Amino acid sequence: MENILDESKTRLVESAMKSIANEHLRLMELIPYGEWAALIPVITQAKRIFIMGAGRTGLMMKAAAMRFMHLGYEVHVVGETTSPAIGAGDVLIAGSGSGTTLGIVNAAETTKRVGAGLICFTTNPDSRLALLSDHVVRIPAAEKQGRDESISKQYAGSLFEQSLLLGLDALFQTLWELDGSPASELWKRHANME
């Protein structure tokens, strides 16, 4: 009896994995890749890069911060105690599915006030965050509060968060390819106190 239950659970996990992968395959057909490519000169010309997101989106943004640091950029995660003031010549890269997260919108307003650049990743191109941004990348995933199962059967903003991570990794991969540095050079910047 236990083996039958284990097989049933195994099939459920496999089905969930395939469902999530299929959502990403559908989403990949809708991604505005030109919006992503337009970020390359903004990032490469920035004096410093500031990264911000809340909740699970914030974790995806922190993963990107690590990769940009590996490429040699000066990167700061907003909210960390060592993050300095943003200024002209810098860029804030913010992720918010709704584009309405108050702390992120407030940071965006500060960013614009001091003359720094602003990039946002969102599902909502009409949001306050998007309207403030110099560059908006729309990720056509379901919004956290919306349960549009034709887009995603996953809980809350999972598809947005996962797609954000995949897209940021693709952006990193592109920047790395354009940079031409060998992996051994990037590895020198990898944390050695873990």
UniProtKB/TrEMBL annotation:
CDD domains: SIS_PHI (cd05005). The keyword Ion transport does not apply. Keywords: Isomerase. It is an enzyme of class 5 (isomerase). It comes from the Bacteria. Belongs to the SIS family. PHI subfamily. This is 3-Hexulose-6-phosphate isomerase. It comes from Zobellia galactanivorans (strain DSM 12802 / CCUG 47099 / CIP 106680 / NCIMB 13871 / Dsij).
